[in-house]
Amino acid sequence: MSLMATRAEAPAASKRSPQQQRILAAAMACFARDGFHGASMQKICAEAGMSPGALYRHFPSKEAIIAAIVEDERAERLHVFDEVRKAPTILGGLLDCLRLLLEEQTLPTATLGPEIMAEAIRNGTLRAAVEPCEEETRGHLKAALEEAVARGEIDPHLPLDDVLILLQIMGDGIILNHQLHPEWSITERLPALHRLVVRMLAPAEKAG
Predict the structure, then answer these.
(1) Around Cβ 149, how many Cβ atoms within 10 Å?
(2) What's the pLDDT tens digit per position in 91-137?
């Protein structure tokens, strides 16, 4: 069963109050429209239709808002990786996962990811806020890749940490260029990109 077919079964990620959800939705709209720097707390207040005092009672900074958005996605991320590991092939499951991010935008940070990454390079507070969830995601990806090695999908002689970093770089790059170059029709190219990755990572006897 593909990840696309199981999207509706994903558990609810957020247990936040209606006011907090309202703030986070407003912040995501502002970040997407104005970028991290351009989306001031005042703009977020206006988008949410609440006073600064009310907003600051819930979130003291933009960094805290981003951390909350990422944390609220944790249950969804866990569900996605569970489905990846149930797929007929791990690499095929990852392809479904990527297609889901690009076509359905199930995780807000898939859209905001390039903006968050660019800001995290120079903003240590933001990086510290989001890195625990990113590290958890890398841990789940590595576990899935270890299973792919055990299934014979990935050459066991390849350094798995290098494979992990390569796939993460490729995934982030695809998400960025999907926004930057819509004319590339990246979602239509995913099957071809998948075949290239499978060929690159396959054990020598299969690649030949």
Answers:
(1) 18
(2) 999 999 899 888 876 677 777 888 888 888 998 988 998 898 889 98
84 and 43 within one domain: no
Which H or E run contains 77? helix 74-86
- The whole model's pTM is what? 0.80
Same domain, 81 and 184: yes
**Which residues form the domain of 32?**
15-60
Helix (H) / strand (E) containing 105: none
Distance from C-alpha of 179 to C-alpha of 186, rounded to nearest angstrom: 10
- For residue 32, give the nearest of 78, 69, 59 by alpha carbon: 69
Residues 114-129 as b/e (b if ≥16 CB within 10 A, e otherwise) read bbbbebbeebeebbeb
Place of tokens 């791990």: 90
Distance CA 124, CA 145 (A): 30
Instruction: Show Cβ contacts of residue 165 under 8 Å, excluding neighbours closer than 6 positions.
Output: none
Q: 46 with 96, same domain?
A: no
78 and 23, same structural domain? Answer: no
Task: Tell me if 1 is assigned to some domain.
Answer: no
Q: Does residue 119 contact residue 126 with C-beta atoms inside 8 Å? A: yes
**Is residue 78 located within the same domain as residue 116?**
yes
Residues 41 and 81 occupy one common structural domain? no
Asked whether residue 27 falls in the same domain as residue 55, the answer is: yes
